[in-house]
Amino acid sequence: MANTSFGMKLQGLGLGLASRFAAHPIVQKYGLTKPAEKFAYLATKKGFQLVQKGLAKKSLGKNNKNNIKALPSPPPLFDLTLSDEQQMIRDSVKAYAQNNIRPLASVADEQAKLPENLLPSSQDLGLNYFSIPEHLGGAGQCSPMTSVLVAEDLAWGDFSLAFAILASTSVVNSISRWGNKTQQALWLPKFCGEDTLNNTPINAAIAVQELHPLFNSALLQTHAKNNKKGYLLNGTKSLVPLAGTADLYLVAAQFKGKNELFLIPAKTKGVTFKASPAMGLRSAEVGTLQLEKVQLDKDALLGNGNVPHKQFNYRQFIDSSHLTWCAMAIGCCQAALDYLIPYVNERHAFGEPISHRQSVAFMIANMKIEIESMRLLVWKAASRFERGEEFHRDAFLAHHLCMDKSMEIGTNAVQLLGGHGFTKEHPAERWYRDLRVLSVINGGLQL
Question: Long-range contacts of range 52-57, CB-CB < 8 Å, 24 or more positions apart?
């Protein structure tokens, strides 16, 4: 306390002397104000140092009596630097999107048809192998963060075709994450091309969305019931991709008051698919999956019999789905921005590029700002998911931001192209239609 008191007195003394000295006419006459200020600074600094030492000793004196508490460890850093492996994957996927997806996107959308060789060629990227355990033929590297990067870059090529490509990968991720040993051994090798007649990987899709208005993924109208053989399912699912060509469906249904997932082979009796083209996602060939008295065996319930920490988590399943859609929206918005910047610089009006107009320049700048903010929230949520932390709040915030801003960016992309934006001469109208789905779909993909 003596040091503390002395320090406080020294502070007061320094400030007091400096004030009096600076106010003296001689000081002002001969320009001695700066030395006075320096003296006050040194006295104040010394006083603060003595005060801090006194407080530290006082604090230590209290804590030394077996009362010292360890400081909490700092939270893990949120590092946006990609690993070498992730960067290599991004480069490969971006090149594939540039060379194999973009050239097909316009015709596929106009015909509302999935290009014939797209899915087989996309298998060369090895997306299905990442999360499959090594003993079943995969890499055993389930990484939500890497999946976000892949979804973003595929959607940069085309949003709708990316949905079709990621449909099977999403089923693989779900089975790898929550499936029991029997389910994994039965299905995962098939996605590697093993256990199939022609060594070709099977296709699959997740079915969550339903037809009723204001659909809420937590209030499913598709129901499952127990019976002697296993489970009996009834319901209707919408916006299911791949035109009914999938070999396996992962269907969300209410069972005993909880929402669960069921593995349903496409050839099961009572499963029918009806084409139902939508405003967007046209080239993914979405349609309606009808389930009428579908009888399943006892191994159809995803994760049935797992230990507690491997039990299926429906909320986490939906949050992960939202993040995948968000990542695809970011990729599509980035494609729009990359397309618009050269356009507004090359398009002339009144003797100058339209990018010289503040209204245009500000709109482009805002698009970049919103894309970066969307990306940051999605990456943060995916990073928490990968570390095994609670990420529901982060996924909720990311989803709501992406819903609002991706639609705004899609609208502005059409606006900046003027009358051309309303025509199929430019891809902006396709991006606009595809981005609309973000606010209405709840499920269908997985990190």
Answer: 53/3, 54/1, 54/2, 54/3, 54/4, 54/7, 55/4, 57/3
